[in-house]
User: Which sequence fits this backbone?
């Protein structure tokens, strides 16, 4: 059985995609919108690849499209999102202390110091669209998981296609 071969350009593309995704984790709603658009485009390209390619490439694109779309559908259905382990993981990580936030004033601080702290905290936690930073963080996190599931599904489908082809040749 011949193993699938991976090229350096493919690896660099995966690293670049996840690098942009991890940069978007520290971003705002605009980053989320850009990454969401890129995810939809990638899934549409995978669907076209599944339709028009042949051989192992077709298997990869079909697996990527099916797994990525299934995850995205499960995330955006209200009844299933909260049952996913990835959603629970992202919610717990989003609640971790944010190192970008200013230090809170001491307990005996004046009302003015407390008001200034609240103003800075609100400015840093709410982005330009008035959305809490955690929503953008969770959205970007789910999109990164979508990319991971799509890539994993494509690789599994590619392995299935390679094993099927070697069984036919034998």
Assistant:
């Amino acid at each position: 059985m011949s193993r699938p071969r991976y090229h350096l350009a493919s690896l660099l593309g995966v690293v670049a995609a996840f690098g942009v995704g991890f940069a978007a984790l520290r971003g705002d709603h605009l980053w989320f919108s850009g990454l969401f658009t890129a995810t939809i485009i990638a899934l549409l390209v995978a669907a076209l690849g599944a339709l028009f390619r042949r051989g192992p490439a077709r298997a990869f694109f079909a697996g990527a499209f099916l797994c990525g779309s299934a995850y995205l559908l499960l995330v955006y259905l209200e009844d299933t999102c909260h049952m996913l382990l990835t959603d629970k993981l992202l919610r717990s990580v989003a609640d971790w202390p944010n190192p970008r936030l200013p230090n809170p004033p001491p307990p005996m601080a004046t009302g003015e110091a407390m008001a200034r702290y609240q103003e800075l905290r609100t400015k840093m936690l709410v982005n330009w669209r008035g959305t809490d930073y955690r929503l953008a963080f969770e959205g970007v996190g789910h999109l990164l998981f979508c990319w991971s599931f799509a890539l994993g599904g494509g690789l599994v489908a590619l392995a299935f296609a390679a094993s099927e082809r070697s069984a036919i040749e034998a």
Notes: Residues 36 and 128 are 18 Å apart (CA to CA).
